[in-house]
Amino acid sequence: MEDNKIxxxxxxxxxxIVAMIGRKNEYGKIEVVGIGKAKSLGVxxxxxxxxxxxxxxxxQAVDEAESVSGVKIEDVVVGxxxxxxxxxxxxxxxxxxxxxxxIDEDDIEDLVNQVHKLVMLPGEEIxxxxxxxxxxxSQADIKEPVGMYGGRLEANFHVVVxxxxxxxxxxxxxxxxxxxxxxxxxxxxxxxxxxxxxxEKEAGVALIDIGGGTTDLAIFKxxxxxxxxxxxxxxxxxxxxxxxxxxxxxxxxxxxxxxxxSAWPGENKETEIVSIPGxxxxxxxxxxxxxxxKIIHARVQEIIEHVYLEIKNxxxxxxxxxxxxxxxxxxxxSQLKHLRQLVxxxxxxxxxxxxxxxxxxxxxxxxxxxxxxxxxxxxxxxxLEKDLKIEKDEEILEEIISESDEEVKEGTQTKIEEKPKSxxxxxxxxxxxxLKEFLDNAE
Length: 443
Description:
The protein is of the alpha+beta class. The chain has helices spanning 51-69, 105-116, 164-176, 187-195, 198-203, 235-246, 250-260, 289-314, 339-347, 374-407, 410-421, 427-442; strands at residues 6-12, 16-24, 30-39, 43-44, 47-48, 75-80, 86-95, 124-136, 139-142, 152-163, 180-186, 205-210, 215-221, 224-231, 273-276, 285-288, 327-330, 351-353.
């Protein structure tokens, strides 16, 4: 089954590291052939803080996925998040030398490259440059300028920026775990491709991915990504609050949150009590569920208000920017009881929980469609899309070569052959290559 190319998504999270191996079945759905996960010890708030531990966790997750699937993992698609990610808006233009020719991919590439020359703060690097609308001469709101005539090509860009050192550290961990880096992508973008439908992206939607260490936000409108943000709070701060508030150890706090936790304090009666065994010979502790949900409620409210502020900054309250499809919640933290109701109450927007099952094959294990795997499924999708694109380019190349063999004499044939090979590289491929070179030199 040669056409069933395999890809691997590696989600390096604050609580867990997941390696997911998959391929597309004949219906274009994703078949997960193996999954491995390990506790993530060396990551704090989405950023690698201990290289050695992170490498060990990656290896553990990869080994488990390999032994389940019987597939050897060579290269992976990695997600990047963390509190150092910020996004900004920028518009730029180029004046074309020959306005008599139509605009082609190269012009857009020139424009994107120009945005890459933007001067960032020291230690920051541009991760994504995403064009929003184009303007040709004075005609605005053009989605796809290729094929049009015009002398001046202008565009608004959504630029995502991150810290060079954090990105390199992730690359370093992946490489030291004996893996190749096929692509790096922003985690909220990966989660979005796993749980959002095209209609939602058109209508306008905010994806909130509540992870262990960070909460990621991605806003779409008219099918285009409009805003991204990473907020440095997640499920772990809720656990910490329970730990402090109830004077218990972290493991107990985490269990309490998952089993009895609720984001809505009104529903628990004063009489509902959980007894927690004391540490070694000490008395057990009694905790009322009402207090527990008060603690959770206070922290969750803070996280949602942070996110809502970002949504308002993007312009949700303007007529043009209104997010008609509301909010989609995903990530491990979205499984907290009554979270959806609290989000609707605070923001006044419709909300649903996003499960990454839309693109998975029908017979997939139920566990895989848990919101905690949204990012891993998304990264796997990025990897599979990339393989498809490479395959298509190769097919086009073969067709051109076989046609030219029949028609053309040697001299021009070489020219035709070279053209598709110089297929425009996405900025990300260049970025990943740059990172690979840097890592190779650092060895």
